[in-house]
Amino acid sequence: MAYENIRLEQEGAVATLFIDRPKALNALNSKTLQEMEAALKSIGQDVRVLIVTGGGEKAFVAGADIAEMAALTETQAQEFGALGHRVMAMLEELPIPTIAAVNGFALGGGCELALACDIIYASEKAKLGLPEVGLGVIPGFGGTQRLTRAVGRARAKELIFTGERIDAAKAKEIGLVLEVLAPEALLPHCRDVAAKMLKNGPLAIAKAKRVIEAGADQDLRVANEMERKTFGELFGSADQREGMKAFLEKRPATFTGK
Ligand code: CAA
Questions:
Q1: How many CB atoms lie within 10 A of CB 85?
Q2: Are 45 and 12 in contact (CB under 8 A)?
Q3: Which residues pair with 244 in a beta bridge?
Q4: How far apart are CA 171 and CA 151, in angstroms?
Q5: Which of 58, 66, 128, 164 to mutate to test the pocket of ligand 1 (most atoms within 8 A of CB)?
Q6: What integer best gives the mean pLDDT of the chain?
């Protein structure tokens, strides 16, 4: 499918979603969000890892589009926020690992996009932050909640109240970013990590993701009960039989995701 502001490329079982509107530093306007929604819906079962990154040299995503938002009424802003939340939730709920490759500015909606991915790796050039209060609003695509869950309340409040942009090293120090790479090493690193994931059982990864995500919002006993149930259920899968048989036969497993 032809998109104007994004590109979805696939190499083997790894897809890469480029937010690609460099003239506005990849800012998320409605059209871009709608294209992302369509692209995420189109991801087939042959895709087993998704990398999300920014097109061009400077930005991952420099936020929601301020030019579009400036004139929104309250009702329109509710709708715009709902669209953003829907896209972030779709990303979070994909049954495959998602990796944000933060190659430049990841501000506001861009930082929120990275936070909706399972793992964030950043280039040494990256700058991250939630500067919305400087525009008289608050983060609107899940930032108040996902950043708080990622780095804790005090750090999230510090970043949101100051609107400060932090560099990749600081983002790693506070646990927002997992690793910092040289710019040219960022995508290769993401692909190397993806390749390690591809060796494992896709159904098990999907279930692990679901239990981690759903469990994070629950009390420990309820969350562990989810894990117990899911662990047991996987023994009805072809992947469990193959994975354990392959181990005992001292050969690599061939998983089918069933
Ligand atoms: N929305 C719309 N356009 C944007 C944009 C954004 N978020 N960020 C950058 N652009 C545009 C600029 O307006 C500029 O366009 P023109 O060339 O037509 O003037 C172009 O991208 C290049 O940007 P700059 O000239 O500003 O580049 P710079 O290198 O001097 O600065 C920057 C880079 C620090 C990232 C700066 O562009 C900036 O501060 N951008 C806004 C960041 C921001 O506040 N993001 C949060 C948005 S609110 C939000 O996201 C709400 C939410 O949670 C849903």
A1: 15
A2: no
A3: none
A4: 10
A5: 66
A6: 97
